[in-house]
Design a protein that fits this description.
This protein is an alpha+beta fold. It has helices spanning about 5-35, 40-60, 65-70, 75-95, 135-155, 195-215, 220-230, and strands at about 110-115, 120-125, 165-170, 175-180, 185-190. The protein has two domains: about 5-95; about 110-230, 2-Layer Sandwich (Beta-Lactamase), CATH 3.30.450. The radius of gyration is 24 Å and the shape is elongated. It starts with a helix and ends in an 8-residue tail after the last helix.
Length: about 240
């Protein structure tokens, strides 16, 4: 093998190893998200990323040295088809459900779990470019808790109804609510998306199923609540 042949081999090897590493890591990250959310879209992306990673892995054995060592050649249509089909699956997720792409750009500022009276059980601030970052943890949680108590009381007493609070619009922000039997969840965001609403519903359901009885009897397990909230929003970066 001459210098040119060696350079070509190293280039192909580096390119395919890089592709293999990138999509193997992407598959791992997507699997962690799927393991938390059990979303069909996430599972499709895991499969698609694995197909692309496997395509790059097989491409390594298409280089001249490996072809000579193995004694046979893998058709480029096979590896190219794996990569193309994997990419098509990823694109289809966003074509079929355009709202799925909004899980990253949307501004989300804070998540609070509260009891049926609107009292704060656990508040978690989210890393964001928004002005909410200028408000301290304590004051932000107490303000939202007070607002929740006041609105729930108004709905129950003034309107004479048990209708659950859905959302409150405050300027360019929304406070989204999902209230269960013993625990409710409130999320402050710039707007709602299907992904965010599904996560809020999932969080509320997990909280009520796993610790609803404890909350009903006045036992607040903040570590457990934190674990459930963070697991329900795996795509969100929380402030430590």
């Amino acid at each position: 093998m001459g210098i040119n042949g060696l350079a070509e081999f190293l280039w192909d090897l580096s390119y395919n190893l890089l592709g293999l590493g990138v999509f193997a890591y992407v598959s791992y990250c997507l699997y962690l998200a799927y393991n938390q959310t059990r979303e069909r879209s996430a599972s499709i992306q895991v499969i698609a990323s694995l197909m692309m990673a496997f395509g790059f892995l097989v491409s390594i054995f298409q280089t001249p040295i490996f072809r000579e060592l193995l004694g046979f050649e893998i058709n480029e249509i096979v590896t190219g088809g794996m990569k193309s089909f994997g990419l098509l699956l990823i694109l289809l997720v966003y074509i079929i459900n355009p709202d799925y792409i909004e899980r990253l750009p949307i501004q989300t500022f804070g998540i609070m779990a509260f009891d049926k009276g609107g009292n704060n059980l656990s508040f978690h601030q989210i890393k964001s470019r928004g002005v909410m970052q200028d408000i301290s943890y304590g004051s932000e949680a107490s303000l939202i808790s007070a607002l929740t108590r006041a609105v729930l009381s108004f709905i129950k007493d003034a309107l004479g109804t048990e209708t659950d609070l859905d959302r409150i619009s405050a300027g360019d922000k929304l406070i989204l609510f999902n209230i269960g039997e013993n625990v409710g969840v409130a999320v402050i965001a710039e707007r709602s998306t299907n992904i965010l609403l599904e996560s809020i519903d999932r969080c509320q359901s997990r909280l009520n199923n796993q610790i609803g009885g404890d909350i009903q009897h006045g036992r607040v397990k903040k570590d457990k609540i934190k674990h459930i909230i963070m697991g329900s929003f795996p795509y969100i970066s929380f402030v430590p």
